[in-house]
Amino acid sequence: MMHDFIFSIFPNENFVDLGLYQFGWEQCGPAQSFGPVARNHYLFHYVISGSGTLMADDSKGNTQTYHIRSGQGFLITPGQVTTYVSSKDLPWDYAWLEFDGLRVKEALEIAGLTADTPVYHARLKDLREEMMNEMLYIVHHRDASPFHLIGHLYLFLDCLTRSAAPLQTPRRSKLRDFYIKEAFSFIESNFQNDISVEDIAATCGLNRSYFGKIFRDAVGKSPQEFLLSYRMIKATELLKLTSLSVSDIGNAVGYPNALHFSRAFKNVYGVSPRTWRNQNAG
Questions:
Q1: For the segment 47-101, what is each residue's pLDDT rounded down to a tens digit?
Q2: What is d(CA 121, CA 125) in angstroms, rounded to the nearest whole number?
Q3: What's the topology of domain 174-279?
Q4: Domain ranges of the chain
Q5: What SS3 string covers the chain?
Q6: pTM over cut 0.85
Q7: What span, in angstroms and rounded, lies between the C-alpha atoms of 141 and 263?
Q8: Which of 159, 207, 244, 253 is a plausible cystine mate for 131, CB 3.0–4.6 Å?
């Protein structure tokens, strides 16, 4: 049986707060399955019509089964092993977005979506339809500029959280948010210097262990992982937008040793800084 399919890969990975990786839409055939597979980022499917089944590992590693119908959706979290299968009698068609970013984990938790509660139930129909329209807009405008698509990704995430958030959303810790903002500000101002996690924690007045815990809970990455990611993104900007030498760029993002910079860059992007620059020239 023939089925319709749209798939696109987002061309730009330099968005830190909210980034898009791939997206699409599919009218699946009967009993069409995908998986088992694990993703590196968050992947959200919204079921436009039909139904199907999701088999997903929970946070304890046990496989749970969820039956999902039109008007619902499901979230796959990074590293979670999942398989999903369309219905034999009424196969689903769905749109999907794969995305990630610094505050995504917190936003999804506000919406009640985690590895243990992956099924999206909308509390507000109008916002649910608006969310679906934002997803389909992205799918059908893949040639728009990256900033334009990221703008619509923000609108999608806003509709997702507001449509699914419980009536009584637990209050987030104001003090914790203050610490995270202080940490972001310190990193943005000092990433080019030889700073450590202890330095970041100290600017918040916290010990390293406690700071590391609240940072990971809020951001989904350890402070070390975030600092590395931030430096590498800044490095790609300099590689693409300037004619500075690789050595000077390494120094500008906190790596006075050019060999250490090249090794760290290759661990993240799979190629050397020089090769990355040649591949992304123009």
A1: 999 999 999 998 888 999 999 999 999 999 998 999 999 999 999 999 999 999 8
A2: 10
A3: Arc Repressor Mutant, subunit A (1.10.10)
A4: 5-164, 174-279
A5: CCCCEEEEECCCCCCCCCEEEEEEEEECCCCCEEEEEECCCEEEEEEEECEEEEEEECCCCCEEEEEEECCCEEEECCCCEEEEEECCCCECEEEEEEEECCCHHHHHHHCCCCCCCCEECCCCHHHHHHHHHHHHHHHHCCCCCHHHHHHHHHHHHHHHHHHHCCCCCCCCCHHHHHHHHHHHHHHHHHCCCCCCHHHHHHHCCCCHHHHHHHHHHHHCCCHHHHHHHHHHHHHHHHHHHCCCCHHHHHHHCCCCCHHHHHHHHHHHHCCCHHHHHHHCCC
A6: no
A7: 37
A8: 159
Which CATH superfamily groups domain 5-164? Regulatory protein AraC (2.60.120.280)
Give every CB contact of residue 45 below 8 A, 6+ residues apart in sequence: 73, 74, 76, 84, 94, 95, 96
